[in-house]
Amino acid sequence: MRNESLINSLDWQVILIYLVLVFAGWLNIYAADYDPDLNQGILSLQMSSGKQLIWIITSLGIITFIMLLDFRFYDSFAYIIYGILIALLIGVLLFGREVAGSKSWFEIGSMRLQPAEFTKYATALGLAKFLSKPLRQNSELKNQMIGFAFFLVPMALIILQGDLGSAMVFGSLVLVMFREGMHPLILIVGLSVAVVFLLTLLLNQTVLLIGITVLTLLFVGLMAKSPKKIAIILLLGVVTAGFVKSVDFILTDVLKPHQQQRVMQLLNPNRDPLGAGWQVTQSKIAIGSGGWTGKGYLQGTQTKFNFVPDQTTDNIFCTVGEEHGWFGSILLVAAFTYLFLRLIFLAERQKSTFARIYGYGVVSIMFFHFAFNIAMTIGLFPVIGIPLPFFSYGGSALWGFTILLFTFLKLDAHRMQVLERI
Amino acid sequence: MSSRTFIIQGIIVLIGLIFTIRLFYIQVVNDEYKRAAQNNIIQEIVDYPFRGLIYDRNGDLMVYNKPVYDLMVIPKEVDLADSSELIKLLGIDHQTFNKKLNKAKSYSSILSSKFVEQIPNDEFAKIQDRLINFSGFYPLPRTVRGYNHHILSNTLGYVSEIDRRELNRDTSNYYKPGDYIGKTGIEKEQEEILRGKRGVRYKIVNVQGVVKGEFSDGQYDTASIPGQSIQLTIDTELQSYAEYLLEGKVASLVAIEPGTGEILAMVSKPSYDPSLLSGRDFGKNFDKIRKDSLKPLYNRPLQATYSPGSMFKTIQSLIAMQEGVLTSEEKIRCDGTLIGDHAPPGIYDVEKAIMLSSNNYFYKVFKRVIEQGVHDSRYLDSRVGLKKWNDYISRFGLGHRLGVDIPNEGSGLVPDVKFYDKWYGENRWAFSNIYSLSIGQGELLVTPLQMANLGAILANRGYYYTPHILKAIDGETSEYLAPIEMGIDSTHYESVINGMESVIKRSAFRAYIPDIAICGKTSTVENSQGMDHSGFMAFAPKDDPKIAIAVYVENAGWGARAAASTASLVIEKYIRGNITRSWVEDFVLKGDFLDEDQKKALEEMNREKAKAKTNNPL
């Protein structure tokens, strides 16, 4: 009887989209890997698709487990889960195995596990727990600082691992903070920083510094009526100038050479089409050659000849673009967009603050993955190497997103019980 | 729902719209990507540079490049209905063909790999036209070394494909698998000058394997830059002649221009034809040469070490005179009792002692240098003397490498205080233990190059330029070398040089050339393994030296015979340009150098060896 009510109260729209995305991803992983000469079936374990099927089946097991667990578990154990994952992140820094320049994998026998994938989940739980505490003013500066620390700490640890792409994902939780009362100025400042950063890369440093000086003086002359305002504007000017100066330092000392190249590549795609730009050029060619309806399933020539690197993982969208064209691509974009909007709708209907904030965390993380993954394949953002949720090949990622999503569905299914408890 | 929720929803919808529009643009509006996809198979074709040419000192081309073709294959594009025609064309069997194709497939199906290596130009011309019918196969022009003269192989060295070990050691990151690299000799030493710079061309081939043209109008192609040519100090004619004379012997010869240190000729025998280590039979030939018991790959004039023998007496006289323990006029009575001697008893001075190579005289002279009476203990006295003597010897370029610009130079051996302390124990050796040094025997070891350099020092009366073989790079003469001084007054050289002149006039009659004043010194190097080695060091002409030379012929007995005759012919060839004494040439070419006594001794030696063998069948 209890299970029946659980099934009835689950949001089947989201589950349906999840199943469609996972299944479509699986078909596309096979297409990306497909070699007509090898003649391997979609179930063959020599193909990525065969292995992905194992991950999909185990994910269904995980879903069952999440559904059977008491919904209050997540609220109660949020900090503990968060603590364990932070400890694992530190552990991987000390004992982890380095793969492709990033020290972010645990190796247990032949199994490799990437704690960063699960840290997103733990951070969403931890942050939700913290912000949902009754009688706490989330607009208070001190509480906001602690809130930020919840995702800046794992972010820093993952940067130390050398995995800038995964670390950036945590930045998406700013959206949660914003929803829960963060001063919009922070969002504006963040955007300004990004704009100045880009300008620094694009324009000559001297020109930019002169521009900042002129603007600062202009503002002082036009707007500043009191000494306090003059001081603030002058301070802003100096800080901006200092930031411009330090971008150069960041570019040469903080970013790794391959990341520097990718940033420069975005700004000037024709700089080195065979070197650093190879990935962007090739993924754009693959997607662009799809046309209205695509070349048809398993008919993609670009993917067949392995022009695009990481086709089954980060660049899985290329296969969609090439073989299913614009119609296929916008169908995928629409499916994700609908999923996010639906999740926001679910989050807003939560009675418990914890569940609502957690729901926003889920949306933020998945939306970030979706937006930046596709942006990089169509040349709108530098290649940062993060997977497309549910689509990309890889066990850690699929498990991570599944746990993230279904924990929220479980919480949502019990939303009516919250009132009874209080 | 709050306004903030609305903003977040707005961002999500906005991103979805941006993607939709962007995708519409690149997938539907812009057909540049469709064209690019059509032409997307970009083949990288390496443009191998021409290796720098090698000229001799007179501008005579010694080493050039011969065109060959590697047949490359891209397995994905191979479309063979019937492979037998291609197999026939290439002249290989079915099995090899399939093996090679499978190997290429296992490497990569879309990247090209080598199918048949180094097809010579004339063979390639025969198959070139028909090769077009076989898609997936294309020729890649390369060059291998060609030689105008089949000489100087050990010093020139050879070029072949870079191996894994060399790739790992390459810190410059220039080399890629399949590149050729100078492995030994000058080819190795001057590799960076000779190799040039690899170029690359990008060709667009469509999905069906048809070449569509250049990628981006060749914007990213780079042309190969040929290597720089180098000029050697070698005189091809002299080198050829010297090699001709020493053919069939185990011998080394080095000739140097004393005024510059330029190496005019450098012979190592037995050797090999340099063209054997160029082209597609490299592997087969290299194996054969490497396994040869006479070690043709060994560059004897640089690597082989011998006792200097009597040549060393020139240095001994100079050191003694500079130390003030001997004057050129001083008469010393030698009765031939101190040490075995071929010179008769009598009264000697420097000139006569050099001429007749008196062992007893130099025993006494060396004793004076070693035991200068600064200590009561003869052990301590000898230590001081030997140390002083070592300083001089080192200046003569002995006991260490001269620094010639050819790889693998040997350093020889000059025993010093440390050496004897280890050998006998500290203060347990004195002159009586080391007197063999006085006549250039004992533990002393020198390379033929060091002895030719000694000839140059004597010719210059007291200095030398580091011997070298690189004269110019692309016509630009290499850097100026500073002379290295011996620290011995030039006046001391006269008596020694007069003695050397008399050697030729009086005792080494085969080396005598009527109108060229040769100053030389023979060595008959004791050899415990068999017959003595014949050695000779000389320079000529006496007053205006043009050439300094050292020759060693192994197991050829008297220095005055094999080595001196060869050296005099090379000197005559260099100075006069032709040979007037054909009888000496016949003598050298015949190679029958031993005199009657030595022949008997050799027979005796062989008999004993045979006996020893039968007694110890193991």
Report what the structure shows.
The complex is a heterodimer of chains A (422) and B (618). Chain A is mainly alpha-helical. Chain A folds into two domains: 2-188 and 259-421, no CATH class; 203-255. Chain A has helices spanning 2-9, 12-33, 48-68, 72-95, 115-131, 141-161, 164-171, 174-179, 184-202, 205-223, 227-254, 257-267, 278-288, 301-304, 316-348, 353-377, 395-413, 417-421; strands spanning 97-99, 102-108, 111-113. A three-stranded antiparallel β-sheet of chain A has the order 1-2-3, covered by helices on one side. In chain A, a hairpin with a 2-residue loop joins strand 1 (97-99) and strand 2. In chain A, helix 2 packs antiparallel against helix 15, helix 6 runs antiparallel to helix 7 (164-171) and helix 10 runs antiparallel to helix 11 (227-254). The mean pLDDT of chain A is 82. With 618 residues, chain B is of the alpha+beta class. Chain B folds into two domains: 43-232, Penicillin-binding protein 2a (Domain 2); 237-603, Beta-lactamase. Helix content of chain B is 39%, strand content 18%. Chain B is built from 23 helices and 21 strands. In chain B, the strands form six sheets. In chain B, strands 2, 3, 4, 5, 10, 16 and 17 form a seven-stranded mixed β-sheet that branches. A five-stranded antiparallel β-sheet of chain B has the order 12-11-21-20-19, with helices on both faces. A three-stranded antiparallel β-sheet of chain B has the order 1-8-9, with no helix packed on it. In chain B, strand 2 and strand 3 (61-73) form a beta hairpin. In chain B, helix 10 (236-246) packs antiparallel against helix 21, helix 13 (312-322) packs across helix 15 (359-370) and helix 21 crosses helix 22 (582-590). The longest helix of chain B is centred in the N-terminal third of the chain and has 27 residues, at 3-29. The radius of gyration of chain B is 34 Å and the shape is elongated. The model of chain B has no long low-confidence stretch (mean pLDDT 88). Classes of the chains: A mainly alpha (422), B alpha+beta (618). Chain A binds chain B through residues 37, 175, 178-179, 273-274, 282, 284-292, 301-302, 305-307, 321-322, 325-326, 329-330, 333-334, 336-337, 340-341, 344, 348, 360, 363, 367, 371, 374-375, 378-380, and chain B through 1-2, 4-5, 7-9, 11-13, 15-16, 18-20, 22-24, 26-28, 30, 32-34, 36-38, 40-42, 76, 109-110, 202, 207, 216, 220.
